[in-house]
Known about the structure:
By secondary structure, the chain is α/β, with parallel strands linked by helices.
Amino acid sequence: xxxxxYNNLGKxxxxxxxxxxxxxLTFGKQISDDTAxxxxxxxxxxxxxxxxxxxxxxxxxxxxVMGAILKKKGWSRDSYVVSSKAFFGIGGELPTQKGLSRxxxxxxxxxxxxxxxxxxxxxxxxxxxxxxxxxxxTVWTMHxxxxxxxxxxxxxxxxxxxxxxxxxxxxKQNHLIGxxxxxxxxxxxxxxxVEVEYSQIYxxxxxxxxxxxxxxxxxxxxxxxxxxPDGTRLGMEGLEWLxxxxxxxxxxxxxxxxxxLAKELGLSLPVMSLAWCxxxxxxxxxxxxxxxxxxxxxxxxxxxxxxxxxxxxxxxxEDILNNKPIFPAY
Length: 330
C-alpha cells in the first residue's frame, strides 16, 4: 500500500491527507458504531488525517458517534482535522434553526463542539449559500469564531464562484479572514464546478477543495451494472432524488465501458474512479464514504493507482464519458 500523501488546503498552511473519511449517510444511520470505529481506526492508521462531518448528518448523531470515537481513541488533537457544516440545522423547522445568520452559525458551532466533545473545530463550512442572509454577516461571524478560538479555518460547500469571491472581497476590504476551502461534489459525471467554474479562483485568492461523492453515490462502484441491489444508499428512504439523478441509462452505459477499461488496467472500477479524481491537481482531498471496512481498504489503493492513469488512459476515460466541460470563450 502506498504511503499517504498530503496537500495544503488551498493557500492555507493546513495539510490534509489526499484521501479523507466522511460520515454522510453512514455514521449514526446506516452503520453500527462499532463499524464506524473500525473505519476511523483503519483510516487513521493509513495516514488519513481529515474526518468530515456536518450538523445535519443523522441530525447530529453522526457528530456524536465520531466525537465518542475520537475520545475513546485518545489520538493527539494535533494529529487530525475534523469538520462540521452549518446550514440545514438538525431538523428544526423554525426560521432561526437553520441558515447562515450569526445566530444560527454561533449556536450550531457550540452544539457541534458539544456533540464532538472538542474545544474547537479545525474546519467549519457554510453547507449551502443562504440567500436570506447578507454575505457580510456570514463572513463577520466566521471571522469572530476564529478570533474566539472555536474554529481554525472556514469554508463553503456548493457555493458559486461568484458567492465565494463576494466573501473574499468583503473579507479583504475589512481585513477579515476569508474562506480557504470549498466542498463541491466531484466525480466523472459531475465536473463543471471543479474543472471550469472555480478555475480562476485557484489561481487568484486560492481555493482548497474537499470533494464529495467521488463514486457518484455508488454508480461508479459498478454495483448497479446489472440490477438494483438491496441495502445501498440509493435505495434508502428519502433519497429518491439521489437515485433519479444518478441512475440514468446514459450513465450505466458509460459505467459498463469504464468497468472494461478498469479490468484491463487490473483495477476495480471504484479504485480507478477515485484515482481519476486524485489526478486533478485542484482537488486537495477526496472524501471517501464507506459502510464496510473492506470498501475502505479497497479504496485506499487509489493512491498507487494514479500512476496507471497515464495521459493515454485519461483520454480513453474521456472518450467513454464524453462529457468534458466546455470552458467559456473569454
